[in-house]
Amino acid sequence: MKQKFPFSKDIDLAFKNDPPGLWMSAVPKGCIRLNSGYPEPALVPSKGIKEAVGRLLDEEQDLPLHYIGSPRIPALKKFIQQRMLKREAEISEEELLVTSGACQAIDLISRILLDGEAVVAIESPTYMEALEVFRNYTEHFMSVPTDANGLDTGRFEQMLADRKEQGRTLPRVLYTIPTFQNPTGTTMTPERREHVLKLAEQYDFLILEDDAYGELGFEEKPRLLKAMDANNRVLYVGSLSKVVAPGMRIGWVAGAEKLVTAMKWFKKDLDHPFAQATMASYIEGIDFDGHIKELTDAYRRKSSTMIAALKKFLPPTVSWYVPEGGYFVWVNVPGADTAKMLPQAYAAGVAYVPGRYFFLNQEEGTEFLRLSFSYANEQQIVKGIELLGQVIAANVEQKVE
């Protein structure tokens, strides 16, 4: 007899969806990984972190290994406040919560704001893991188009006006990655940033600003929505995963004190004191601005290498956005189904992520794919794009015939 368990109705709602991580198929050994949104291995400061751990344990002995943790931990919050102030967002200690990565921050925001009746406005396409989190709490979404300038706020305004006129529920939260978006690599213009904040006031919703890639601008870093937020509409989510080490799981959320306090109720003591202490020890021993420059110089070169290879090896019908920072290039392959094409790419020796996984309605994304220039080295990037070009050309030609 099949055993029944007393799951809550909310868990039953989540189980209606595909399992999380379905998009992350096993990549055959030897494939060039243009699918991986990970830092370049050589840029992960393993030596510096090893030294930080040694310094931490030599100076503090057992303290970092206890529940309460190291006396260094408050310095991590101060560091985060300083980094945000550098980008014109002044955050008090009471408005800041350190989390176990950006995904825990997104989940905590969802727990305190969402229920089965809530509507979440999302970019189309958007970060698939955030979409997985939101689907655990609600089935109601507004999918807002994006273009080369990020979220199409003009279209969003029309959609909001239509919903209001029809008496339909307005969004409680807009989730956006305005800077070096995942998956498209695009950046919202200053005019659109101002517009979306005005819409938040007019239609009374909050904005979840995911800024996981915001430090990785190849030229100037755009102004944060949080820095422009005069009315506490923005919940800002940051992360050190893309600029230090993803396995450390250091993220944070900054927002109105009342909202942050509510998140603390659910986070309770689910900290990683040793990881936070290690990160605090690491950052006290380095020039962080110099570290960020090293990263952006490297990723700028790798992005340029990928764009040049795309121009050289991909058919002329294929197009893409040129990123100004971050990790990703978003590619449109008219006439192809990139999910069905993926096994051919694996057989050829290159991996990517099919675009369908970044859309609420996966039928919208069949002709797109996401490439990452962050993980592979420049030689691998060029070879990988050459192989991908051959696979795409074969599929587009078949379609034409």
UniProtKB/TrEMBL annotation:
Protein name: PLP-dependent aminotransferase family protein
Keywords in alphabetical order: Aminotransferase, Pyridoxal phosphate, Transferase
Domain of life, source organism: Bacteria
Signal peptide boundaries: none
One family name in Pfam for this protein: Aminotran_1_2
Stretches assigned to the Aminotransferase class I/classII large domain: 50-382
A Gene Ontology molecular function term of the record: transaminase activity
Cofactor (UniProt): pyridoxal 5'-phosphate
Lineage: Bacteria, Bacillati, Bacillota, Bacilli, Bacillales
